[in-house]
Design brief:
With 286 residues, this protein is of the alpha+beta class. Among the domains are: 1-48; 148-182; 194-276, no CATH class. The chain is built from eleven helices and 13 strands.
């Protein structure tokens, strides 16, 4: 039996058969047979916490056709896929290379396939090779300030002046001038939805909890939604229960940083829980 590379990598990363079948678009039986073929034990149940940057890497990828893995996590201002783990930022390219080869890349790490957004460990190379693939943006030794043709191409891809300036190491004002000359409309920034920000700035931890990795307002996790700053916990609570919380929404699970909606309680839930406890204890006392 030939095991698909993306299925094999997800199996080795410790994911369950059902999760892999859903993500890779294959049958549950084929995943089970692949696990047996590779001699891997059954996955541990429950939410898989990120015990290392490599663990978090596997939680931020999506298998697609051709053994590619698309990055679903955060990207920095230059478009590089990155992740945040224990106060440090990591390049997904460098992590993927290390997963595949067991050591840090020498110099730059870059994609060797032609699939846009791929971070599959087997598709990442480093500067130790003689030359980057021809399709790679850095393969032809671009001049530091870029060419007009390169700027026009990126304008037509929908990038902003600042994004193009960062990528080509040229002045955004120069990009803006070329945009006007080519009559390419300015990019209208699209604000991220709450769901998109939630996916970008949360990570599971041991015990079934969820930790917020985004910005805070004071001591409270916060996001900007519809032009205003809101509490992450209040928004998550309302989306789960279909109503705003009565008073503060706080974790009732015992894990202080938790933002998992199912673990949040408001005043009404706490009062109801306390009433149930009181009724139980009164019945036992009687």
């Amino acid at each position: 039996m030939t095991v698909r590379a993306d299925v094999a990598e997800l199996l080795r990363a410790g994911y369950g058969d059902r999760t892999i079948a859903r993500q890779a678009g294959v049958t549950l039986g084929s995943v089970t047979r692949a696990r047996a073929e590779l001699g891997l034990p059954k996955a541990r149940g429950g939410i898989k916490g990120a015990g290392s940057p490599e663990d978090l890497f596997w939680q931020r990828v999506k298998p697609v056709d051709g053994d590619h893995l698309e990055w679903t996590g955060h990207r920095n201002g230059k478009g590089t896929p990155t992740l945040h783990w224990k106060r440090d930022n990591y390049s997904a390219y460098r992590l993927a290379f290390q997963i595949r080869h067991g050591h840090e890349p020498k110099g730059y790490a870059f994609v060797t396939c032609e699939h846009e957004g791929c971070v599959a460990p087997g598709h990442i190379g480093d500067s130790a090779v003689t030359a980057r693939p021809a399709h790679h943006r850095g393969a032809i030794g671009r001049k530091p300030n870029g060419t007009r043709e390169e700027i026009v191409a990126l304008l037509k891809e929908g990038l902003s002046d600042k994004q193009i300036g960062n990528r080509l190491r040229t002045n955004p004002k120069r990009v803006s001038k070329i945009r006007a000359e080519e009559q390419v409309p300015a990019v209208v920034p699209v604000a991220l939805t709450f769901a998109e920000q939630w996916a970008m700035h949360t990570e599971p931890v041991d015990g079934g909890h969820v930790r917020w990795t985004g910005r805070f307002r004071g001591d409270s996790p916060a996001v900007t939604d519809a032009g205003r700053t809101i509490s992450v916990r209040r928004a998550a609570f309302e989306r789960l229960h279909g109503r705003p919380p009565v008073g503060p929404a706080a974790p009732g699970c015992g894990y202080g940083p938790c933002v998992r909606p199912e673990h949040l309680e408001d005043r009404a839930i706490r009062q109801r829980t306390n009433s149930l406890y009181d009724a139980i204890f009164r019945a036992e006392a009687a």
